[in-house]
Amino acid sequence: GKGRHRHFMAKEIEEQPEVVAHTLTTYLNPSEGTVNLPETGIDFSNISRLTISACGTAYLAGLISKYWFETLARLPVEIDIASELRYRDVPYQKGEAALFVSQSGETADTLAAMRHAAEAGVTVGAVVNVTQSTMAREADAVFPIKAGPEIGVASTKAFTCQLATLACLAIAAGRARGYVTPEREAELCESLLKLPRLMNDVLAHAEEFDRLGTLLQPARDVLYLGRGVSFPMALEGALKLKEISYIHAEGYAAGELKHGPIALVDEHVPVIVIAPRDAHFEKTVSNMHEVMARGGKCLLLATEKGLEAAKTDEPLLGSFAMPDVDPLFSPLIYALPIQLLAYHTAVHKGTDVDQPRNLAKSVTVE
Ligand code: M6R
């Protein structure tokens, strides 16, 4: 049940430090600082390309992992939403591999895209939560995300456990392809193993989102901005908010702002800026200042130092101080404020958080 929580979503948000720790120790050995994949895995060492596909939040976890596979394993990644990939005329080659990400393992489009790739002779891996699912049964390799049952329609802990699993896969791919040395592997494992504690640090201040939620509640439209791995996070923030609060929200790559969406900015459109301390920080903050110069009201998610560095005369609509984290893996931590913001906004609006209108937990029809 929900225990002391008002909603399953609140419970599942809070479970993340524990379940992510469990996922990580499934795939990596903390004392040795190595990643160990299940026996029947995917041979990343000599594939020419990796295809990734999924729907909704699972797709966004896949999109984040694209950055990881490229950076850590120098592996070309093709990624598309499953409802498109299944009908595309993809020129698959034998000896390629593909990963399909799904909490339920039953999503119709993801399953169809997986079958299509398998028929083309591609080795298919399923990154799933439900290990008795159709996708798990049919895939050549199964990578359980170990999140435990997720009841809330809005995916939270499955997302971070998908990320934890995909991060381990990317490290393993990097090692298999000779781009990740044993020293680097140990460092990366250490960075990952720190994440559950950092998640707890964020959750210790979760009550701040009650107030931040009141700031979004009156909005008709909300924009989310991020660069690099924070771009898919912007998409995830917007998806989460629209799904449970019914507020129209869009995520954009911060650099794409000037190419259209900045026309939407006025004092009535809150803009959520996701800016961890990474190589993109200055650029993202300068995009935020462009928004503010046009009267936009920004809510900044950044480290204490980042918040200090981003200061201007114009006050922010709001901010939340995030812990320092390995920039590569920041999505696992920034997922929390994104989820909490959507959750509290929805609670203030009085919507049905766990069962939003028109949505099903598992989309088994096309
Ligand atoms: O079970 P799956 O992971 O395949 O589901 C995919 C999407 O339907 C799912 O992530 C959906 O977008 C969530 N409701 C998002 O919170």
TrEMBL record:
It comes from the Bacteria. Keywords: Aminotransferase, Cytoplasm, Glutamine amidotransferase, Repeat, Transferase. GO terms for molecular function: carbohydrate derivative binding; glutamine-fructose-6-phosphate transaminase (isomerizing) activity. Residues 40-179, 212-356 form the SIS domain. It is found in: Cytoplasm. The active site is at residue 361. One of its GO terms (cellular component) is cytosol. Its EC number is 2.6.1.16. GO terms for biological process: amino sugar biosynthetic process; carbohydrate metabolic process; fructose 6-phosphate metabolic process; protein N-linked glycosylation; UDP-N-acetylglucosamine metabolic process. It catalyses: D-fructose 6-phosphate + L-glutamine = D-glucosamine 6-phosphate + L-glutamate. Catalyzes the first step in hexosamine metabolism, converting fructose-6P into glucosamine-6P using glutamine as a nitrogen source. Homodimer. This is Glutamine--fructose-6-phosphate aminotransferase [isomerizing]. It comes from Parvularcula mediterranea. The chain holds residues 244 to 609 of 609 of the full protein.
